[in-house]
Amino acid sequence: MWKKIAFVLCVGAACGLGNRVGAQTADQAWLKDATPQPNPEAVRALGKGPLEQAALEELRRGIGRHKESSEIVIGTVDEVVHAFPALRVPTARAPGPEGYWLYREPDNKDLVIAGADERGVLYGAFALLRLRGEGQTLGGEVVRSTPAMAIRWVDEWDNADGSIERGYAGRSIFFEGSKVRDDLAPVGEYARLLSSVGINGCNVNNVNNAAPFLNAEMLSGLKRIADAMRPWGVRLAMSVDVASPQKVGGLATYDPLDPQVKAWWTAKVNEIYALIPDFAGFTVKADSEGQPGPASYGRTPADAANTLAAALAPHGGVVLYRAFVYNHHLDWNDKKADRARAAYDIFHPLDGKFAPNVIVQIKEGPIDFQVREPVSPLFGGLTQTSQAMEVQITQEYTGQQRHLVYLAPLWKEVLDFDLRVDGKSTPVKNILAGTAAFDRKVSAQAAVDRNRRSFDSSALRANVAQDDKSVSRTNSVGRRLGGMVGVSGVGRDAWLGSPLALANLYAFGRLAWDPNLAPEKIAEEWTRQTIGNDAEVVRTVTRMLMQSWPAYEGYTGPLGLQTLTDITGSHYGPGIEGSENNGWGQWHRADHEGVGMDRTVATGTGYAGQYAPEVANIFESAQTTPDDLLLFFHHVPYTYRLQDGKTVIQYLYDSHYEGAARAAEFVKDWEGLKEKIDPALYTKVLARLQYQAGHAIVWRDAVTQYFLKLSGIPDEMGRAGNFAGRLEAEDAKLTGYEVIDVKPWEDASRGKAVACDAKEKQRSCSAEWTYHGAAGVYDVAIEYFDLQGGVAQFDFRVHGKSTGSGADWVADATLPTKRPHGDNSVRHVVRGMVLKPGDVLEVTGTPDGSDPAALDYLEVMPVASSMH
Ligand code: GCW
Q1: Does the beta carbon of 166 lie inside 6 Å of ligand 1?
Q2: Which residues participate in catalysis according to the annotation?
Q3: Rounded distance, CA 603 to CA 783, Å?
């Protein structure tokens, strides 16, 4: 009987999702497959629609984990009211579009999941599983939830060749060799993960290099992707190149106001909808970082957006037009030039000129996903235009998934930030939800409309086709659209590569659904579902997640300096001058006297004046600017005192040492959970945390020795530039190794390292030091450079004898760039060495390919402080 039912009810991507060995499944994230428990009576669906069937399947799979003796009935509100006319449902408080309620009548064991529409049923099912997963049971109360925002999308930056821009988890799950992949099972699993946290759209291709995606073969492939995601209520969107009429269509122009161009887009959009009837829309990057745009014809972003919008409107599609438009050839010597101003300067004058189905997609800060930036003032600058906030799940500037950085606290700060438009409370989250003060008139109208619709079941959508018009329908009542878009970067390596980074994907969906959720609560929820329900596990992992962004900020770019990395390259390791002296405009203007960029109206670039007066006044003065943004808004002397009286320079030293020390504690925290978590997960995460602890030291040393040299002001605690116990490679007795200058100099201890020149054909090189410290037991750290293009080998010996476990290792990590510097400087620790004065310490490096087994230093550390 069970088999038969399972067969009949198995639909679309819900089929065959058992825990396939070696396959990429949602199991690697927070949705754990339960062993099927044949208990088909426990869950019943009232409708036959595909999303409702997916919800049914999901509940059956998940409920297997929980003992269920009663029945769960799922359906749309219409279906529930129809099936149970006597049910005392709380009709006055019906869920809004895509929402649900979970309801158990006081005198009845059975539980009802009612969705405002089919998506709501699916989200309700996932909500129930989440509550159960957390050990919560429902009493007689109603759990009622409606997403705050209409747009809850992830954007992928996948290229047709299968590579992923700023992706850190392997190759694309969607594309390979200019085609859509044959095996789309991972795409279905991804959509299931997205759906479980309420994400309803996925743009699958990069905003750069988008033109090849509009050819006929690719479009038929995209149809297959849309089919794989549809059972989970995730609609497909794509990025388009505005020059496509010329590049793909062969027209002489792509001027958005040219009638031929408009006709071309209409025909192309019709072709897409013939294949994908619920296609969600286009994302556009234009006039930005080399992408073509309307400026080539003297047209505005609104002209370009509206041409696309007109083609999409009849089908209910939308245009997400990115406000990431700026000149990357700014004059570095011009003290008034400021990239941060660009989005507001370009888009604010266009407010009110966009078609109703255009949403301006704004990065959360005015620069580019830095470790900390102020909120983009453009959110407050568009009161008649729908807006979405773009955040990055993929950790481009925040450690590229090799560092633990839980981003929900950053996003939450932005969501809660009050822009005080017209002197009224205007948190960003309200703007995105279309409920800001300036939306009051239209939202009042929408509320009337919603009330009229509530429990007028005929107005509630009952099938996918109707549901897919939800976006345009909401807009037709005058309510601004809006939402959140997360650049996700998932790949074939367990989605995000790092197991703990998945907390960011999870948190993104949860916050887009409900921006009032606390990041800590989300972290806890995620930990329980992903790692374990044990109290110590939950407490420890939640604490690690919550401390991770402040730690990373502390050792990379505190006080609003932004991430102090090479902004024209990998965006990964330390490189303090990488953002200066070029046209890209991520400047911090550090000199001998002081640091920070003057963005005030009085003496600087005027950026601060883009905020409403109450906020602008706060940022205009260094005294009232919060310390963590001080150097974003002001150029101050190193001796300037922060709110607690500490000088800027001392804070720079302290925060780097404290941040790196915190990263070292993450290792200890995790080690304490060894007996309580899955061994494979334990080992995988431990290796990453150990790497992070080492790389945090690379960051710490680079930034502190750089500012020590530039400012000439010593660290009160005597740490910066003094590396006790460190034996420099360039001071060693070298055999084969040659001294090299590392660039930038601050990325190596004292700016120098040694490399083994493979061209000379020697098999290996060695560096030897004589130990002069006290006798005792030590941990020894060896700092080396793990370069691409070969797997170098290392060996550490004392008096020619192997030093035991961990004494030889290979440099086989995949780190950015091909020359030795902070991107690829790695710390290897050999623990518990017994040393006495006169011991000869020797590191042998064997180069391979283009990896010259380069070494920076060796550090002898008392055991207790080995990571510090
Ligand atoms: O952060 C920068 C990235 C680019 C990216 C660009 C953008 C897709 O370094 O790789 O391009 O932002 O957001 O368009």
Answers
A1: yes
A2: 289, 368, 396
A3: 44
Distance, in Å, from the CA atom of 329 to the CA atom of 364, rounded to the nearest integer, reads 22
Two tokens, residue 653: 């030293």
**Closest C-alpha among 512, 439, 424 to residue 474:** 439
Tell me the sheet residues that pair with 72.
Answer: 43, 111
Helices 301-312 and 259-275: crossing angle, nearest 10°? 40
Please give the structure tokens belonging to residue 788: 């691409």
Question: Does residue 466 surpass a pLDDT of 60?
Answer: no
Residues with Cβ within 8 Å of 312's Cβ and at least 6 positions away in sequence, in order, are: 269, 281, 282, 318, 319, 357
Cβ 552 under 6 angstroms from ligand 1 = no
- Token pair in block for residue 244: 């496509």
The C-alpha atoms of residue 798 and residue 252 are separated, in whole angstroms, by 72
Phi, psi of 16 (to 5 degrees): 55, 35
Atom of ligand 1 nearest to the CA of 369: 1
Cα of 247 to ligand 1 centre, how many Å? 22
Three-class HEC string of 528-548: HHHCCCCHHHHHHHHHHHHHH
The answer to whether residues 148 and 99 touch, using CB atoms and an 8 Å cutoff, is no
Task: Determine the Cα–Cα distance for residues 561 and 595; give it in Å rounded to an integer.
Answer: 9
pLDDT (tens digit, 9 = 90+) per residue, 635-665? 999 999 999 999 999 999 999 999 999 999 9
What are 34-77's pLDDT values in tens digits? 555 555 448 899 999 999 999 999 998 887 645 556 789 999 99
Q: Supply 655's token pair.
A: 């925060």
> Of all protein residues, whose CA lies closest to atom 12 belonging to ligand 1?
368
Q: Is 750 left (phi over 0), alpha (psi -120 to 50) or beta?
A: left
Does 20 have pLDDT greater than 70? no
Nearest to 628 by CA among 582, 562, 564: 562
Alpha carbon 52 to its chain's center: 30
| Ramachandran quadrant class, 210 (left: phi over 0; alpha: psi -120 to 50; beta: rest) | alpha
Contact 316, 468 (CB under 8 A): yes
Q: Which of 182, 78, 177, 55 is nearest to 128 (CA)?
A: 55
473 close to ligand 1 (CB < 6 Angstrom):
no
Please state the length of the chain.
868
| DSSP class of 93 | G
Beta bridge partners of 654: none
State the distance from the centre of ligand 1 to the C-alpha of 369, rounded, in angstroms: 9
pTM above 0.90, yes or no: yes
572 close to ligand 1 (CB < 6 Angstrom): no
Q: In sequence order, which residues have a C-beta less than 8 Å from that of residue 722 and are 6 or more positions away?
A: none
For the beta carbon of residue 724, count every other beta carbon within 10 angstroms.
12
Pocket test of ligand 1: the residue of 166, 394, 488 to mutate, having most ligand atoms within 8 Å of its CB, is: 166
Q: Which DSSP state fits 374?
A: P
Q: From CA 790, how far away is CA 785, in angstroms rounded?
A: 12
Smallest Cα–Cα separation from 286: which of 389, 365, 340, 361?
Answer: 361
CA–CA gap between residue 186 and residue 494 (Å, rounded): 10
443 closest CA partner among 484, 415, 482 = 482
CA distances from 677 to 257, 404, 532, 533, 683 (A): 60, 18, 7, 10, 10
Q: What are phi and psi of 688, to 5 degrees?
A: -65, -40
Interatomic CA distance for residues 654 and 175, integer angstroms:
46
CA distances from 371 to 289, 367, 406 (A): 21, 11, 11
Question: If you measure from the C-alpha of residue 860 to the centroid of ligand 1, how many angstroms do you get, rounded to a whole number?
Answer: 41
Question: Residue 328: CB within 6 Å of ligand 1?
Answer: no
CA-based nearest residue to 483, from 397, 387, 598, 555 = 387
